[in-house]
């Protein structure tokens, strides 16, 4: 097997036991969390499925009738310590240029390149991140 075809394992974060526990707790909560959909999303094609709060005075959803789907409530949130973390355990940081990479900690941060970054600058960012040993979440094939 040549060096080009060799599999390279993805970089893993160094996280505490509490953070691991919180990530597992978040995963369990995500499994039990309903897909919150807008009222009457199935009835009209023009309505999207993304959540909108029910505001009608006669709305059964707003009044919380049992045969209606769940409303968005604070109890469905995940643990505060791991909110916004990537499923791998890294804390995601949005990167605009190569200089932004210097501020990151390789052990706990992962880079996500901003959508407005062009191809030339994107390649420079990926190259520098690989030199540092930093994980790029949307860097294509690593």
Automatic annotation (TrEMBL):
Biological processes annotated in GO: translation
Chain intervals for the UniProt region annotation (Disordered): 1-31
Pfam families xrefs: Ribosomal_L32e
InterPro entries: Ribosomal_eL32, Ribosomal_eL32_arc, Ribosomal_eL32_CS, Ribosomal_eL32_sf
GO cellular component: cytosolic large ribosomal subunit
Keyword annotations: Ribonucleoprotein, Ribosomal protein
Protein family (similarity comment): Belongs to the eukaryotic ribosomal protein eL32 family.
HAMAP family per the UniProt record, alphabetical: Ribosomal_eL32
Protein's recorded name: Large ribosomal subunit protein eL32
Biological source species: Marine Group III euryarchaeote CG-Bathy1
Taxonomic lineage of the native organism: Archaea, Methanobacteriati, Thermoplasmatota, Thermoplasmata, Candidatus Thermoprofundales
């Amino acid at each position: 097997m040549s060096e080009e075809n060799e599999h390279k394992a993805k970089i893993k974060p160094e996280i505490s036991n509490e953070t691991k526990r919180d990530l597992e707790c978040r995963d369990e909560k995500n499994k039990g969390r309903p897909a919150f959909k807008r009222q009457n999303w199935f009835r009209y094609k023009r309505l999207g499925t993304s959540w909108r709060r029910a505001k009608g005075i006669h709305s059964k959803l707003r009044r919380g009738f049992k045969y209606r789907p769940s409303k968005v409530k604070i109890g469905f949130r995940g643990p505060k310590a791991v909110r916004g973390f990537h499923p791998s355990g890294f804390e995601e940081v949005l990167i605009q240029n190569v200089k932004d990479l210097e501020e990151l900690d390789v052990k706990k941060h992962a880079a996500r390149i901003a959508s407005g970054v062009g191809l030339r600058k994107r390649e420079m960012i990926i190259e520098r991140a690989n030199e540092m040993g930093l994980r790029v979440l949307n860097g294509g094939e690593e």
